């Protein structure tokens, strides 16, 4: 193999540092006191994290976001994978029309569904519950479309061999399709998780109890925290922001290899 070009490596490193500079600056700021930040001094402290976790309940908000985003990802992936398998492998009356309807949902802005979803969950008594946060998000047309295109590229001969051995459709899906489509499923899982993790509007509408707030709602509330003289406690906000982005970064690191592979292979197929 040819040795790496030092110049290209330096350029990549420089671009990476520039890209991450806002995040790095936010982390740096989170260890400053409010007085030090506004006076230009250096005064390192961990009190911002202690305040965010203890006084402002960010430990609870973090737990809520993990529960909601995790369940939406798991259930949403299961629903999307089964729908994609059905659309890719079976022909049934109205199948093309149903798939067209799924694709059409991609053109509907999510804000249009706020009022119908709110009224439906209010009539069902599911507002201010985990179910009210999770149920509207488990149906994901883009995930079904993406996985359907990926599954269509898997040879049908593998399915037929499994059926000849006595496998049921669910066994074919779980033992044949899912292992092969793992890169696409993991990349789509990360996409669903990040989308739900950053969701702000629906939790704001559907939840009024503080013990059910997600991180995004809790982060928005910190802008009202006043350390004095009508200013915002930016170091505290940055500490909360750091807590908010850490799970997403860990999730990205975990599936980064599969994410790139899934996107590339899905595009080729």
Helix content: over 70%
| Low-confidence segments | none
Query: Looking at the structure, what is the overall shape?
Result: globular
Strand content: under 5%
CA radius of gyration: 23 Å
Might you state the CATH topology name?
MetI-like fold
Q: Class in CATH?
A: Mainly Alpha
Number of helices: 14
Structural class: mainly alpha
Give me the CATH superfamily: MetI-like
The CATH architecture can be named as Orthogonal Bundle
What's the count of strands? 0
Mean pLDDT: 86
Ends distance: 29 Å
Keywords:
globular, 269 residues, mainly alpha, MetI-like fold, single chain
Description:
With 269 residues, this protein is mainly alpha-helical. The chain has a single domain, classed as MetI-like fold (Orthogonal Bundle). It has 14 helices and no strands. The protein has helices at residues 6-30, 34-39, 47-55, 58-89, 95-104, 114-124, 130-134, 141-152, 156-164, 169-180, 182-197, 201-206, 215-221, 234-268. Helix 4 packs across helix 11 (182-197) and helix 8 (141-152) runs antiparallel to helix 11 (182-197). The chain is globular, with a radius of gyration of 23 Å.
